[in-house]
Amino acid sequence: MNQLTVIGGGFAGLVAAISAAEAGSRVTVHESHQTLGGRARTADGPYRTNEGPHAFYNQGPHWGWLEQRDLIGPLAPVPFTESTKLRVHSGGKLRMTPPMAVVKLARKPLAEAPVDTDFFTWASSIVGEEGARAVSNVVAVSFFHHDVGALSAAFVQERLRRLARLSPEARFPRGGWQSVIDRMAARARELGVTIETGARVTEVPADRGPVIVATSLAAASQLLDDSSLTWESGRAVLVDVAVRHRRGDLYAIADADAPAWIERFTAQDKTLAPAGEELIQAQIPIGPDEAKSVGVERAERLFDLGYKGWRERTTWRGKDALCVGRTGAVDRPGTTWRDRPAIDRGHGVYLAGDQVAAPGVLSEVSFSSALEAVSLALAAGGRGGTVAHTPGREPRHHTSPKPQPVAQRLTAPRTQTQPKTQEQQSPAQSPAQGQAG
User: CB atoms < 10 A from the CB of 175, how many?
Assistant: First the structure.
């Protein structure tokens, strides 16, 4: 059997390990942390805060793959009564409806948004500068970037259209992302994958088959001694607070005046905090020259608006965190995901993660890149096997002289006989932090 090494036991690393093992490879995973999960890790203890995404989109390529293997587990749906408690901070006040500019822009086909023009310029031509600014701030939850308007119009419009769907794509695994990670780890072990935790790797292993580096881009750059492994990401302040329950607390606040998002995650999942308490988490993008205190102050002002008496009701507060370069890739005008660091680094080394050259949104990029890394590794090894694919999508056969490009293979429409699934990254966070990605 072929041997394959995976460095990093987060979401991308486990996808790679499972895919390679299913294709017949003998796989070893090295994870430097004592627990698996990476940014999908969930903190132990009574306050189940996530270090990474709190939700993921059910329309992405990863959903069918996870569902087919029964790795998603129970979901925590948002009750209708809670969904009515979503407010938009606009003009210094909380409003029940988003700015009309959001609705108008969300209706624009993705094909109309240019790649080589910034979102603010393009949106301003449609809804005016004030509207474009408001939309950029409202959708910041999906980017964790302080200036969404400066990014590629096509890049932003793709996420805006998904966020504005009438039937929301976001789904919440009960108990946090760790429950999904635990199922993935169990599946990997069933397939014979060797998982070593607390095992920091300082150089690429030799004579152990292809190596998939499924770490942050910064860590990969250091490991591979390759300064070209860089791509822009966001910078966000993360604040977690638990308060005693009070009827009337809002479910979530989106900020149209400045990029910010606050959400009460116990609205859908009571297991995240002790009985009678509510877990509220804020994600506040800040500029490259702004101090963490700027984001903390902005979060607390929004707490004041949506959670009356929260200071007196606070039972626990996590360590306020500054998340730098760990919120997924963002594409500037003139660039797309194809311009990010390539998956194939040569000499049997492949990258996987949320900042590399693969399509998708947040954790979907991690999934797509992991699957492609395994496909390339198996093809380079001359194996005739197939990486298991998402239901309804064509698998890649590595004996084919013209393998299907990853973008087509992972985003191909479902077949008519495959029913469409009816069932989304938040940023990386400290062990007591949490987003909806």
Answer: 17
Identify the three-state secondary structure at position 385: coil
Phi, psi of 89 (to 5 degrees): -85, 110
**Which element (helix H / strand E) includes 195?**
strand 194-197
Structural Rg of the chain based on CA atoms? 21
Q: Are 88 and 94 a contacting pair, CB within 8 Å? A: yes
CA 12 to chain centre: 11
Token pair 């093809």 is found at 379
Nearest-angstrom CA–CA distance, 220 and 121:
35
**CA 408 distance to own-chain centroid:** 21
224 contacts 345 by C-beta, under 8 angstroms: yes
Residue 66, CB-side half-sphere exposure with 13 Å CA sphere: 32
- Mean pLDDT by runs of 10 across the 437 residues of the chain is 90 97 96 92 88 72 93 93 95 93 95 97 97 95 92 96 82 90 97 96 88 95 96 93 96 96 94 96 94 96 96 96 88 98 96 95 92 94 54 34 37 34 35 38
Cβ–Cβ under 8 Å, residues 156 and 139: yes
- Where would I find the beta strands (DSSP E) of 214-355? 235-244, 252-255, 261-264, 277-285, 314-317, 321-324, 344-346, 349-351
pLDDT tens for residues 23-57? Answer: 999 999 999 999 999 888 888 889 998 776 566 78
* Residues 6 or more apart in contact with residue 291 via CB below 8 angstroms: none
Of the candidates 382, 389, 421, the residue with the CA atom closest to the CA atom of residue 404: 389
Cβ–Cβ < 8 Å for 91, 257: yes
Helix (H) / strand (E) element for 170: namely strand 170-171
Residue type, 191: L
pTM score, whole prediction: 0.86
Task: Decide: 329 and 337 in contact? Cβ < 8 Å.
Answer: yes
Judge whether 147 and 332 are in contact, CB under 8 Å. Answer: no
Residue partners of 285: CB distance under 8 A and separation at least 6: 140, 143, 144, 145, 146, 234, 235, 236, 237, 259, 260, 295
Long-range contacts of 376-380 (CB under 8 A, 24+ apart): 376/343, 376/344, 376/350, 377/4, 377/20, 377/209, 377/210, 377/212, 377/348, 377/350, 378/2, 378/20, 378/23, 378/25, 379/403, 380/210, 380/348
Span between the terminal Cα atoms of the chain, in Å: 37
